[in-house]
Amino acid sequence: MSEQNHPINTYSQNELLLQAEVDALKKQLDVLEQKVFAFESILRSELSNELVEVQELTVLYKKQKLAKKEKRIAQKQRGKNYTPPTSLKPLPKAAKVHVSEVDEKERKRLYREAMLYVHPDKFNMNEGQADLATEVTTKLIHIYQTGDLNALKDYHAHIFSGNTLVNIAEHSGVKVDQRSKGEFLKKEKERLEKIIDEVKGKYTYKVLTEYPEPMKFLDELKLYYKDRISKLRRRTRVG
């Protein structure tokens, strides 16, 4: 059997081809992610105030909705004509810790950073991620409102450690285990192709590739958030 037709040689050639394909896909993914994530970062920076307010109002709306539901249930249990005593006082809010002006600035900085990191933006995130982000920001808002800087620092660190959300910008590798290198490379190729498809499936990628002026999308988002904030303010208005 000639050296050229030796099965081991052929297998090694296949591995080399697969490795070259994997390397090319990695480069393609890096370029795509840098382009898309940089664009998303600009959008979030320009919309930072709107993003924070929407999330705060969303949390407030859910709290009010839950309170109304609990009130209806309580009235049902006591009878349709039940009227709560007028002497009842609302429950006190969480005690607020006194903070200095310097600490207050730091507290606001940490709060905004964490809020923007987990905010469920409407141009990419799916419903599951949005619900999870709302849970995280509910706790974040509560800690911020107490004024406890140390507690906020701890939760800020917890959020940025990646323990609260699956960061869509990070993709874990495939373990080799006992598989052959060729099998591993096939799986790695499939994994990279899937991630590339996911990035290309983002609406922001569509904007970058199809809009003559991608930054015009920012105007669309500003209008969207203006309308969203207006509706949420009406829904959460008391009295």
UniProtKB/TrEMBL annotation:
SUPFAM superfamilies: Chaperone J-domain. InterPro entries: J_dom_sf. Residues 71-90 are annotated as: Disordered. This is J domain-containing protein.
